[in-house]
Amino acid sequence: MSTTVAASPAVSRDLGYKTFSIGGFRFERDEYFAHITYPTGRHLMPIDAFLRALMRDVAWGFFYGTVNFDAVLGTVNHYGTVDLFMGLFNEAYRSSNKHYVETFDSAALKKVYEEMLDDWTNEGFDPFAAPDETGKPFGRKHGNNRAAIKRERLVANRMVGLKGDLGYRDTPVNRQFSDVPSDKPEVHAEAGFEGEVHAYNFANYVSRSDVTWNPSVVSCVKDSQFCATTEENILPIFHGNDRVEWFVQLTDEIIWEVADGRTGKPRATVVMKAGDIAAMPADIRHKGYSPKRSILIVWENNDGSLPERYKKGELKPYPVEF
Ligand code: PHB
Ligand code: FE
Known about the structure:
This protein is an alpha+beta fold.
């Protein structure tokens, strides 16, 4: 493919959307698609899938490791800088030398991403919502949905409900969690320890989440973060781990498609039912499918030295040997 592909606009009609550029990348949208042109080629994604992935990459500050929007486009977080790539972890692109990567300051790419998400999200479409709980993203530009896309990732410093920490939710209980009880736990502390014991109804807190596939930190001890999330339909990204993460399936069922992190070659299908726990290795990518809204805890290790130690082979990509 020649560079002339990137030089001419992919979308020639004015539909009211802005075009965004950073380095050699250009992003354009039309009624149904995001078009990405770059010096060695062009790529497109359905606009709904693109906006859902973009929403996560923005809200999570590029997350841990790799956020694959699909089998071609994605970002690798180097915690300060970020690689924006096409085909970097796609064996077919790599073997024909068609991949393309540029590194940006995280703040610079985040700014472009935020502006693109804002301009391309029409009134009525919520990229964080389950497909059955939102309007459509298609057509010419009409309005915006700033209230939805400005949601911040909720992070408890110690634990939800502690004084000065993340508060309880007052959003309605989700339609699929009407059977989750809302009673408060009873705390009977030993005399003298009244100020040091805390409990809250976690299930009730989580069942009030109005977003999907968006882990929020509910408790944190040093680098150990419990990230709770409600899942419905499909995780909009293929997450490429740069460390081990643990999944604790609390209700219902998620089917995980697990592939090699670098090549995308399939490695496993993991069916997790309520009560199941799995460790996702540091060298894989995964995407979850949740037929009914379910509650998942993602247990993250926030230790910043881990990616390098896995890369060097100092740590094995899996945490246990059987
Ligand atoms: C993950 O990639 O580990 C992940 C991301 C979002 C979720 C759940 C899991 O909601
Ligand atoms: Fe993950």
